Amino acid sequence: MAVRRFPDLARSAGVGLLLLALGTLPALSAAGAGVDSKLEQILAGSHRDPKNAARDVYRHPKQGLLFFGIQPDMTVVEVWPSGGWWTEILAPLLKDRGTYYAAWYATQAEGTSDFAKEQEKKFDAKLAARPDLYGKVIKTHLLAPAYVDLAPKGSVDLVLTFRNVHNWAKAGNADAMFKTFYDVLKPGGILGVVDHRAMPGTPFQRQVENGYLTEEYVIGLAERAGFKFAEKSEVNANPKDTTDHPKGVWTLPPTLALGDKDRDKYLAIGESDRMTLKFVKPVR
Q1: What is the CATH number of the domain that holds 236?
Q2: pLDDT per residue over 187-207, tens digit each?
Q3: Which strands, in side-by-side order, build the sheet including 228-233?
Q4: Could you give the number of structural domains in the chain?
Q5: For 200, which of 18, 122, 135, 245 is 20 to 30 Å away at the CA?
Q6: Is residue 23 part of a domain?
Q7: Residues spanned by the domain of 154
């Protein structure tokens, strides 16, 4: 049976006071309306891969980025952009007035798979094919604790990571990754996290095995790194997702790990239920 989750209203009620205390209360002005319109134009752009655009219904890019407070003049790091789904949105938004770091996998690390190296070549080709959109992208490499030069320390307004934390939990370097995000952000900077959401109380080993993490686990990672939890959104919630699938989160689209078996069932569920969490680096 599907379980519907609701926002933690008590936490949400204190968000304004928390952000004000941290010196990061967003201005509700024409700037917000401007980025909304700009995102609409980008999302409708012909530069986007149609397969990527088809996932908007599950990933809610405009609503998510507005929740994280993005502005076109920010310095933004996207962690592990992989095939460039978010690059198609972030790079055009930031190219004129902002800075976009694409912190790719550290493919130079020993033991990197051939698949990862091939994926990087495809990403590089994507950037090279549209210099008008992607010519200002700064590509770096990240795999903490060994590779942490994703951007100059203390220079970044916003770090974004989409559906990556479960990989670091499995690899055992999640704390090191979050510490790296903390170091590159300015005081008052924002960390935005989206990942597959486990039911509260799910044992950690089960989280690692099936790719779904509890909000408690992710909030703990951020707080150990020095962040303050600011706010959460239900924009990426999916009440149809029971999170108990035979091959974990990869059972669902877009992976569909079971192939044609029960394909219609999993397509009807859609992509995973996801947490959307905002953290702030305190102003000291």
Answers
A1: 3.40.50.150
A2: 999 999 999 999 999 999 999
A3: 138-142, 99-105, 75-79, 156-162, 185-196, 274-280, 228-233
A4: 1
A5: 18
A6: no
A7: 31-280
